[in-house]
Amino acid sequence: MKVLLINNFSIENNPGGVENYLLELTDYAQRSNTDITFKWFGKGNKKTHWFQKLHNREVTKEIIAEIDSFQPDLIHCFSIGAPITPHFMNYAKSKSIPVLQSFRDYYYICPKNYMLTDSGKIIERHENALECIFYHHPRRNIVFDSLLYLKQQYHKRIINKNICYFLSPSDNLTQFIRKHFNVPGRTLPNPVLLSNPSLETASDYLLYVGRLDREKGVLTLLKAFQNVVLRFPNEKLLIAGSGAEKDVLLNYVETNKIPNVRFLGAQNRDQLKKLYAKAKFTLVPSEFLESYGNVILESFAFHKTVIISSLLGLVDEVASNHCGLIFPYGDDTELAKKMELLLVDKTLRFELETNAYSYVQNKSFSNHFKELRAIYIQILKDNQPTVSINSSKSRM
């Protein structure tokens, strides 16, 4: 079985969660000697002209050439929109190649992707263009927000017309997708991408792993730590990641003279393993509706509990399995209280760590791959070309 993976970016372009997943997927297939041959198409450059964001003809031609060369049985798409636009799907459908779309975030529900109104309420239904443009967070200006909405709607129609199945990592996102796309699909939870519990597990610091972008809530984390360090002056906060807000965050630390904060920059997989292993716990303060939260699973795999905001896709699982603490998103006072609680109550922290490690045991990549392979096989079975009775008779 030959599967063409299509994603906006390649692994060389400052990889995020999707790119790390695709790297593990392709590596696992090679290590496991499976019957699936993957080929990953992604671009190394984020820069595109404004007109290419609507229809990138050059990249579409490249993908069509890749389809003709690789001749996949199935195309599995992930994050697409720019620099890759979905027009190649028309060609794939004309060749009777089934297209599977994995939705990894809420962009194709709300193009602003935060799933919040400008008053901070979570969006439960998204059906009105004017509400999206004028009242959904974040707002830039009416021209930009209108063009963003029109672009998303244009691409959404192409995707809806051409895909035959969808996947999403969380039940909440799956329910939204079912309302907006007229195709079957299901939830396939993310697997653990990092795991090595045999590493040293001494607890030395508090840890944040992720992008340094406004929606990730790192400024709220710094404000909380600013209060925590007054009571616990020896505590350290390590921040692993890069992003557009780095200078703003560095300036906040310097201006407010917050001690014991280290910005480590982007970390590779081996470096992240060592960071998780020696953390006391991990902090995930996101301020937009995240579909899942890979950092949470990775922390659990290293026997570490988490403090997460109320906007994480795994919030219900964390609460019901009692494997972490939850605070109202954007509330640095409540976050500081949760941090202090875990620093003081080591019995609670041990209980959460134990539950966290138990929860993640069935989230292995091998289990995930078996489910994904079964989905591929079913899609191919359901989309086999059919021969009409009349055409069969004409050949007799």
From TrEMBL:
Domain of life from the UniProt record: Bacteria
Molecular function terms, GO-annotated: glycosyltransferase activity
InterPro entries noted in UniProt: Glyco_trans_1, Glycosyltransferase_grp1
Q: Which Pfam families match?
A: Glycos_transf_1
For the Glycosyl transferase family domain, which residue ranges apply?
203-357
Gene3D superfamilies from the UniProt entry: Glycogen Phosphorylase B
Any idea what this protein is called?
Glycosyl transferase family 1 domain-containing protein
